[in-house]
Amino acid sequence: MNSEAQAAAVTLAMLAAAADGTQSPAEQAQLKTLAAQAGVSDLTALAKQISAGQVALPDVARRFGDDGSRREAYEIALLVCNADGPANEKEQTFLAELRTALGLSGADLQRTEQGVRALATAPIAPAGPASTAGSDAALDETILQQAMLTGALEILPDRLATLGILPLQLRLVYQVGQRYGQSLDSDQIKDLAGTLGIGAAAQLVEGVVRKVLGGLTGGLLGGVLGGATGLAAGAAVTFAATYALGHVAKQYYAQGRKLSAEDLRALFARFQEDAQGLLPRVQDQIRRLAGTLNVQDVMDQLRPR
């Protein structure tokens, strides 16, 4: 993408995040934080314009000059709209209008849309009875392995793989809850992730900004990168977020869900720092894992067993 298309891609991602019409205050705060931390002076103003309905979709679509950039733009919007489950009616309307504005046909996009739908509808709870077996060490290893897996997904060139990150993170929380005898539904799990700043659409929008504009000064998940790690920024951030989420869930459910939101966020920051220290020792494993993964592997991980 050229510079005009890059700016349009960021605008489109933020439009897609707002398309469902049901943004919670937490989601709005995350996107505002993204705008403030992206290091792009116009992004905060853009967020306000989108909230006020002052950005016209056809105007944005005209800024993508070739077939490749138009398709890429649509895929970005498709991922954001399906980030927190299947696109609702308003999001579907937004995507249909975007296809028309970009001059794309549904048939051309059928395979991509089917893959997105499969990931968006993946259940958080694996099939089968709840399990509370396993030692603390085994649970810690599960958290580490899932953190490395989600980090590896960020490295894959197929953007569809990134849609598998949040379901894997939420499933990890479910598994941790099972370990402590907690009966959880998807809304409870998403509420915990949201308290920690891990919102579906905001994570994807942040990824778009990072990849399109070349990096963030801080990021929604904090300054977890530290010095040079040799690993892509997105993979490092996602690894740290998943690792911290898993360990916060472990503390939270072990203590009977009695920790306050402030306590949870403090723990999340602490475990992010732990992940930062651990990353240099596991980054080669993350790279090797990425070399063996594809989108089908992600779907297999999320398929009920």
Write the layout of secondary structure elements.
Layout: H1 3-18, H2 25-37, H3 41-51, H4 57-61, H5 67-81, H6 89-102, H7 110-120, H8 136-155, H9 165-179, H10 186-195, H11 200-213, H12 233-254, H13 261-292, H14 295-302
Helix pairs in contact: 1-3, 1-5, 1-11, 2-3, 2-11, 5-6, 5-11, 8-9, 8-12, 8-13, 9-12, 12-13
Summarize the structure.
The protein is built from 14 helices and no strands. The protein has 305 residues and is an all-alpha fold.
Task: Write a structural description.
This protein has 305 residues and is an all-alpha fold. The chain folds into two domains: 3-120, Orthogonal Bundle (TerB-like); 136-302, no CATH class. The protein is built from 14 helices and no strands. Helix 1 runs parallel beside helix 5 (67-81) and helix 2 runs antiparallel to helix 3. The termini are far apart.
The total number of structural domains is 2
Give the overall form.
globular
How much helix, percentage-wise, in residues? 55-70%
Number of strands: 0
- Count the DSSP helices: 14
Q: Let me know the average pLDDT.
A: 79
The fraction of residues in strands falls at under 5%
Q: Segments where pLDDT lies below 50 for 5+ residues?
A: 215-230
